[in-house]
């Protein structure tokens, strides 16, 4: 079985020695090199072509996040696991945006670190359980924000009209429900179609359902 080629990047020699000792106990790994700075890491990745670089997020000079971004861009076959003592949201999402395949806290157990490296080597992503929930929360927040922005151009009254359109109501039924004139409703519907850039009521109704309009209706 082909061994995973691992490179260790940390500006503390003791940390690198500890990681090497841990990983070299496992026959599936081959620790091919070490680096103590981002610059050295880039040079070593270029020459050694490791499968996985296990990198401290805080390096002297250029940060681990910046180094990760450069490695991912220049050497796409090398996956990067960010290893850190900090479970800070800003660092976590910066690492993900930089292209890191893993984000692991240094407090992790040895067996879990081995599993994380194996997962990343297979092309999977690996997040420390401590930060996984934060990622899901951020994804949910982003989705909610995107859905909310889908109706930003509509007035509150137009949202009410669109909701009733999505329920299959006719203009006459909408007018009665909202105490409006039928002509006023027609104008609202025309404005809604224009603002949402859709061609007809059916498309507008589908758009409303897709983006969960009901959650953004205020009474």
Quick structural gist:
This protein has 219 residues and is α/β, with parallel strands linked by helices. Helix content is 55%, strand content 14%.
Would you mind describing this structure in some detail?
By secondary structure, the chain is an alpha/beta fold. Helix content is 55%, strand content 14%. It has helices at 13-23, 38-48, 64-74, 89-98, 110-121, 129-149, 156-166, 171-178, 182-196, 201-210; strands at 4-9, 29-35, 52-56, 79-84, 102-105, 126-127. Strand 1 (4-9), helix 1 (13-23) and strand 2 form a beta-alpha-beta unit. It is built from ten helices and six strands, in the order βαβαβαβαβαβααααα. The mean pLDDT is 86. The protein has a six-stranded parallel beta sheet, sandwiched between helices. The chain has two domains: 4-141, Response regulator (Rossmann fold, 3-Layer(aba) Sandwich); 150-216, Arc Repressor Mutant, subunit A (Orthogonal Bundle).
